[in-house]
């Protein structure tokens, strides 16, 4: 009985095998690249969400710690406890962080402004006599299409500016501040922050839990 002769791959078979391997490798590379792009997109979205939450959280804290204390700049110009318009506000606040237990007051003057599609925060270490060069400025959020603020008065009316025109109590805080931030990726985000009155009791706007 004759043994079958051993033979190797023909050139055509080698070419076919190489072609199949190339197709499989290309498909695997495309899948890995797609997964990498998806993961990168998810990471970018998570980073963006954290930045958004951090910015809004900082703005809400500044308002929740508002105090009915006017400020005076280095030129002696008096500013109400809270001064605001549709796209910016300044406020005196307490609760300033002091992790090193330094000998300083726990109050400060802060300002928020929407400008050039950015949310910016500035802080001065003193309520009175603070100089321009003492300001701490930070860019809190980018790619912001709009910031709209409104302020609730004692009668529950929403106003576009604070203090109200001809108000006999320019240092009185509004009952609440409504924040509307519009971003291209998350649309319009709404917050209502109840402020504290002179007795230290939080005033909740109607319709909020």
Automatic annotation (TrEMBL):
Output the superkingdom of the source species. Answer: Bacteria
Q: Does the keyword Cell inner membrane apply?
A: yes
Could you give one GO CC term from the UniProt record? plasma membrane
GO biological process, alphabetically ordered: protein secretion by the type II secretion system
Q: Where is the signal peptide?
A: none
**Where in this chain does the entry annotate a coiled-coil region?**
35-62
**UniProt keywords, alphabetically:** Cell inner membrane, Cell membrane, Coiled coil, Membrane, Methylation, Transmembrane, Transmembrane helix
Q: What is this protein called?
A: Type II secretion system protein J
What organism does the record attribute this protein to? Ahniella affigens
């Amino acid at each position: 009985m004759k043994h079958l002769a051993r033979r190797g791959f023909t050139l055509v078979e080698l070419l076919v095998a190489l072609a199949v391997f190339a197709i499989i490798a290309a498909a695997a590379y495309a899948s890995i690249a797609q997964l990498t792009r998806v993961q990168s997109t998810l990471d970018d979205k998570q980073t963006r969400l954290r930045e958004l939450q951090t910015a809004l959280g900082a703005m809400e804290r500044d308002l929740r710690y508002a105090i009915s204390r006017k400020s005076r700049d280095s030129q002696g110009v008096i500013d109400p406890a809270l001064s605001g318009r549709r796209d910016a506000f300044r406020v005196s606040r307490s609760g300033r962080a002091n992790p090193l237990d330094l000998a300083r007051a726990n109050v400060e003057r802060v300002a928020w402004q929407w400008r050039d599609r950015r949310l910016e925060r500035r802080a001065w270490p003193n309520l009175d006599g603070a100089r321009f060069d003492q300001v701490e400025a930070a860019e809190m959020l980018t790619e912001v299409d709009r910031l709209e603020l409104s302020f609730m008065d004692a009668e529950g009316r929403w106003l576009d500016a604070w203090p109200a025109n001809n108000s006999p109590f320019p240092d009185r805080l509004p009952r609440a501040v409504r924040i509307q931030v519009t971003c291209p990726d998350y649309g319009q985000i709404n917050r209502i922050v109840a402020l504290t009155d002179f007795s230290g009791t939080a005033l909740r706007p109607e319709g909020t839990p």
